[in-house]
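ingest -> validate -> predict -> emit
validate: passed (alphabet ok, no gaps, 121 aa)
predict: started
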Amino acid sequence: MKRAVKRGLSLLCVCAVWHGAALAQLADPTRPPPEARLTAADLADVPPTPAGPQLQSVLIGSNGRQVAVIDGQTVRKGEKINGAVLVDVRKNQVVLQKGKNKQVLTLFPDDAKNDAKKAAH
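emit:
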């Protein structure tokens, strides 16, 4: 009988240790993501967020309808956003005009910079 009790206790201990090890491998769902724990030095490697309006989408309909989504706002050609008029809508970019100043917004600004570099070489 003592032998059976010892065996049972041993088995119980092994199961408890195994269960604890299995739980240790589970991720804590309430733990913040790794990005939230970045230090100031880590943030130096992160590219800065571009200033100014951001073009998020372009829609050019077959019926001539031209729409852009800029900073989450839907703007049709000829309408204003932040005091600037949407004067041109193209496949990957739009042109805003405020007075005499024109600003070109591209869907993929990094790709546009890379294309300009390739064209220069």
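The domain at 55-120 is CATH 2.30.30 (SH3 type barrels.).
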